[in-house]
Amino acid sequence: MAAPSFASSRLVVAVDHAPPYSYTQGETRPRGLLIDIMMRISKQLNVSLQLIPCPISRCVQLIKSGQADIGGAFIKTLERQRDMAFLEPAYMVLNSPFVFYAQTESKTVVNKFDDLYGKRIGIVRGAAHFARFDNDQKLMKIAVQSEKVAMDLLLKGRLDVVIAVEQTADHSLSVLNQPSHRLKKLTYRHDEPILGYAVASKRSEKQKLIEQVQLALLDLAKSGELSQIVDLYDLPPVVVK
Prior knowledge:
By secondary structure, the chain is of the alpha/beta class. It folds into two domains: 10-94 and 194-231, Periplasmic binding protein-like II (D-Maltodextrin-Binding Protein, domain 2, 3-Layer(aba) Sandwich); 98-190, D-Maltodextrin-Binding Protein, domain 2 (3-Layer(aba) Sandwich). Helices cover 31% and strands 27% of the residues. The chain has helices spanning 33-45, 56-65, 78-81, 131-135, 147-155, 166-175, 207-223, 225-231, and strands at 10-15, 48-53, 70-75, 84-94, 98-103, 120-124, 140-144, 161-165, 183-190, 194-201. α1 crosses α7 (207-223). The longest helix has 17 residues, at 207-223. The two termini are 28 Å apart. The model has no long low-confidence stretch (mean pLDDT 91).
Protein backbone atom coordinates (compact mmCIF):
# COMPACT_ATOMS: atom_id res chain seq x y z
CA MET A 1 0.00 0.00 0.00
CA ALA A 2 1.37 3.41 -0.95
CA ALA A 3 2.20 5.85 1.83
CA PRO A 4 -0.38 8.63 2.20
CA SER A 5 0.46 11.87 0.38
CA PHE A 6 0.09 15.21 2.15
CA ALA A 7 1.93 17.26 -0.48
CA SER A 8 -0.48 20.21 -0.38
CA SER A 9 -1.09 20.09 3.37
CA ARG A 10 -0.02 22.60 5.99
CA LEU A 11 0.47 22.11 9.71
CA VAL A 12 -0.39 25.07 11.92
CA VAL A 13 1.95 25.16 14.93
CA ALA A 14 1.19 27.32 17.97
CA VAL A 15 4.47 28.53 19.49
CA ASP A 16 4.84 30.19 22.89
CA HIS A 17 8.00 31.79 24.29
CA ALA A 18 9.67 29.02 26.31
CA PRO A 19 13.46 29.10 25.80
CA PRO A 20 15.26 27.02 24.69
CA TYR A 21 12.32 24.99 23.40
CA SER A 22 10.88 27.94 21.52
CA TYR A 23 11.73 31.61 21.16
CA THR A 24 9.20 34.19 19.98
CA GLN A 25 10.03 37.41 21.83
CA GLY A 26 12.41 39.66 19.91
CA GLU A 27 12.43 37.26 16.96
CA THR A 28 11.31 37.94 13.39
CA ARG A 29 10.32 34.26 13.18
CA PRO A 30 9.90 31.68 15.95
CA ARG A 31 12.91 29.43 16.48
CA GLY A 32 14.09 26.80 18.94
CA LEU A 33 13.96 23.07 19.56
CA LEU A 34 10.25 22.64 18.78
CA ILE A 35 10.67 24.37 15.44
CA ASP A 36 13.76 22.29 14.58
CA ILE A 37 11.84 19.08 15.30
CA MET A 38 8.78 20.15 13.33
CA MET A 39 10.91 21.34 10.40
CA ARG A 40 12.52 17.91 10.25
CA ILE A 41 9.14 16.15 10.38
CA SER A 42 7.52 18.50 7.85
CA LYS A 43 10.36 17.84 5.41
CA GLN A 44 9.92 14.08 5.84
CA LEU A 45 6.15 14.32 5.28
CA ASN A 46 6.46 16.93 2.52
CA VAL A 47 4.13 19.42 4.22
CA SER A 48 4.48 23.11 5.00
CA LEU A 49 4.43 24.76 8.42
CA GLN A 50 2.61 27.86 9.59
CA LEU A 51 4.11 29.09 12.86
CA ILE A 52 1.85 31.20 15.08
CA PRO A 53 3.59 33.01 17.98
CA CYS A 54 1.26 33.25 20.98
CA PRO A 55 1.28 33.49 24.78
CA ILE A 56 0.81 30.05 26.34
CA SER A 57 -2.83 30.76 27.25
CA ARG A 58 -3.62 31.73 23.65
CA CYS A 59 -1.68 28.74 22.30
CA VAL A 60 -3.77 26.44 24.51
CA GLN A 61 -7.00 27.94 23.16
CA LEU A 62 -5.84 27.66 19.54
CA ILE A 63 -5.01 23.98 20.03
CA LYS A 64 -8.20 23.21 21.96
CA SER A 65 -10.35 24.79 19.25
CA GLY A 66 -8.52 23.12 16.38
CA GLN A 67 -7.30 26.43 14.94
CA ALA A 68 -3.77 25.13 15.54
CA ASP A 69 -2.82 21.53 14.86
CA ILE A 70 0.35 21.23 16.93
CA GLY A 71 1.94 22.80 20.02
CA GLY A 72 5.02 22.03 22.05
CA ALA A 73 6.66 21.55 25.46
CA PHE A 74 3.35 20.84 27.20
CA ILE A 75 3.27 19.19 30.62
CA LYS A 76 0.65 16.43 30.67
CA THR A 77 -2.45 17.05 32.79
CA LEU A 78 -5.86 15.37 32.82
CA GLU A 79 -7.54 18.61 31.77
CA ARG A 80 -5.27 19.04 28.77
CA GLN A 81 -5.72 15.42 27.72
CA ARG A 82 -9.39 16.08 27.09
CA ASP A 83 -8.54 18.31 24.14
CA MET A 84 -4.98 17.37 23.22
CA ALA A 85 -3.22 14.20 22.12
CA PHE A 86 0.24 13.99 23.68
CA LEU A 87 2.74 12.81 21.10
CA GLU A 88 5.32 10.30 22.28
CA PRO A 89 8.04 10.47 23.32
CA ALA A 90 8.50 13.54 25.51
CA TYR A 91 11.27 15.66 24.00
CA MET A 92 11.57 17.92 27.06
CA VAL A 93 13.09 15.97 29.93
CA LEU A 94 14.04 18.20 32.85
CA ASN A 95 15.24 17.40 36.33
CA SER A 96 15.08 21.09 37.16
CA PRO A 97 12.81 22.01 40.10
CA PHE A 98 9.95 24.46 40.29
CA VAL A 99 11.30 27.39 42.30
CA PHE A 100 9.85 30.60 43.69
CA TYR A 101 11.44 33.99 43.07
CA ALA A 102 11.12 37.10 45.24
CA GLN A 103 12.77 40.50 45.28
CA THR A 104 16.28 40.30 46.71
CA GLU A 105 15.59 43.01 49.29
CA SER A 106 12.18 41.69 50.33
CA LYS A 107 11.55 39.94 53.64
CA THR A 108 9.53 37.22 51.93
CA VAL A 109 10.25 33.77 53.34
CA VAL A 110 9.03 30.49 51.85
CA ASN A 111 10.64 27.51 53.56
CA LYS A 112 7.78 25.07 52.94
CA PHE A 113 4.66 24.82 50.81
CA ASP A 114 2.37 26.20 53.52
CA ASP A 115 4.39 29.43 53.56
CA LEU A 116 2.87 30.24 50.16
CA TYR A 117 -0.55 30.93 51.68
CA GLY A 118 -1.41 34.61 51.86
CA LYS A 119 1.20 35.59 49.27
CA ARG A 120 0.48 37.00 45.83
CA ILE A 121 1.90 34.34 43.51
CA GLY A 122 2.55 35.16 39.88
CA ILE A 123 1.82 32.38 37.39
CA VAL A 124 1.72 32.34 33.61
CA ARG A 125 -1.87 32.06 32.41
CA GLY A 126 -2.48 28.60 30.94
CA ALA A 127 0.72 27.05 32.34
CA ALA A 128 0.87 23.79 34.30
CA HIS A 129 3.11 23.21 37.31
CA PHE A 130 2.84 20.40 39.88
CA ALA A 131 -0.44 18.87 41.01
CA ARG A 132 -0.52 20.10 44.61
CA PHE A 133 0.13 23.68 43.53
CA ASP A 134 -2.23 23.67 40.55
CA ASN A 135 -5.09 22.06 42.49
CA ASP A 136 -4.86 24.22 45.63
CA GLN A 137 -7.69 26.75 45.41
CA LYS A 138 -6.61 28.52 48.62
CA LEU A 139 -3.42 29.89 47.10
CA MET A 140 -3.57 33.48 45.83
CA LYS A 141 -2.50 32.81 42.24
CA ILE A 142 -2.40 35.79 39.89
CA ALA A 143 -2.29 34.81 36.22
CA VAL A 144 -0.41 37.02 33.77
CA GLN A 145 0.43 36.78 30.08
CA SER A 146 4.08 35.74 30.29
CA GLU A 147 6.95 34.98 32.62
CA LYS A 148 8.53 38.31 31.69
CA VAL A 149 5.39 40.16 32.78
CA ALA A 150 5.35 38.18 36.04
CA MET A 151 8.96 39.09 36.80
CA ASP A 152 8.32 42.75 35.94
CA LEU A 153 5.35 42.84 38.34
CA LEU A 154 7.46 41.15 41.01
CA LEU A 155 10.14 43.83 40.65
CA LYS A 156 7.46 46.53 40.92
CA GLY A 157 6.18 45.02 44.17
CA ARG A 158 2.81 44.01 42.75
CA LEU A 159 3.55 40.32 43.35
CA ASP A 160 5.24 38.66 46.30
CA VAL A 161 6.62 35.60 44.51
CA VAL A 162 6.71 34.07 41.03
CA ILE A 163 6.78 30.33 40.31
CA ALA A 164 8.96 29.07 37.46
CA VAL A 165 11.04 26.12 36.29
CA GLU A 166 14.52 27.02 37.51
CA GLN A 167 16.43 26.06 34.37
CA THR A 168 14.18 27.79 31.87
CA ALA A 169 13.60 30.85 34.08
CA ASP A 170 17.32 31.45 34.60
CA HIS A 171 17.80 31.16 30.84
CA SER A 172 14.94 33.58 30.14
CA LEU A 173 16.27 36.15 32.60
CA SER A 174 19.61 36.20 30.80
CA VAL A 175 18.09 36.31 27.31
CA LEU A 176 15.60 39.07 28.17
CA ASN A 177 18.22 41.10 30.06
CA GLN A 178 16.09 41.29 33.18
CA PRO A 179 17.91 42.34 36.39
CA SER A 180 18.44 38.90 37.94
CA HIS A 181 20.57 40.50 40.69
CA ARG A 182 17.34 42.01 42.04
CA LEU A 183 15.75 38.58 42.38
CA LYS A 184 16.38 35.73 44.79
CA LYS A 185 15.27 32.12 44.85
CA LEU A 186 13.43 31.18 48.00
CA THR A 187 14.26 28.07 50.02
CA TYR A 188 11.21 25.98 49.14
CA ARG A 189 11.35 24.17 45.82
CA HIS A 190 9.45 21.28 44.30
CA ASP A 191 11.61 18.56 42.78
CA GLU A 192 10.22 16.02 40.34
CA PRO A 193 11.10 15.13 36.74
CA ILE A 194 9.33 17.40 34.26
CA LEU A 195 8.30 15.92 30.93
CA GLY A 196 7.20 18.15 28.07
CA TYR A 197 5.49 16.85 24.95
CA ALA A 198 4.49 17.98 21.52
CA VAL A 199 0.70 17.94 21.43
CA ALA A 200 -1.90 17.70 18.70
CA SER A 201 -5.40 19.12 18.69
CA LYS A 202 -8.16 16.54 18.95
CA ARG A 203 -10.37 19.00 17.06
CA SER A 204 -7.98 19.43 14.15
CA GLU A 205 -9.37 18.40 10.76
CA LYS A 206 -5.98 16.85 9.93
CA GLN A 207 -6.09 13.72 12.09
CA LYS A 208 -4.61 11.48 9.38
CA LEU A 209 -1.69 13.86 9.01
CA ILE A 210 -1.28 14.07 12.79
CA GLU A 211 -1.04 10.26 12.88
CA GLN A 212 1.88 10.52 10.48
CA VAL A 213 3.48 13.24 12.63
CA GLN A 214 3.33 10.86 15.60
CA LEU A 215 4.91 8.05 13.58
CA ALA A 216 7.61 10.38 12.27
CA LEU A 217 8.41 11.59 15.80
CA LEU A 218 8.75 7.99 17.00
CA ASP A 219 11.02 7.17 14.05
CA LEU A 220 13.24 10.16 14.87
CA ALA A 221 13.44 9.00 18.49
CA LYS A 222 14.20 5.35 17.68
CA SER A 223 16.89 6.29 15.15
CA GLY A 224 18.60 8.57 17.67
CA GLU A 225 18.16 11.61 15.45
CA LEU A 226 15.76 13.26 17.91
CA SER A 227 18.36 13.07 20.68
CA GLN A 228 20.92 14.55 18.28
CA ILE A 229 18.63 17.54 17.66
CA VAL A 230 17.98 17.91 21.41
CA ASP A 231 21.72 17.71 22.13
CA LEU A 232 22.29 20.88 20.08
CA TYR A 233 20.52 22.71 22.92
CA ASP A 234 22.55 20.99 25.68
CA LEU A 235 19.43 19.20 26.89
CA PRO A 236 19.04 15.61 28.18
CA PRO A 237 18.61 12.85 25.59
CA VAL A 238 15.15 11.61 24.69
CA VAL A 239 14.07 8.34 26.31
CA VAL A 240 12.10 5.92 24.14
CA LYS A 241 9.94 3.51 26.15
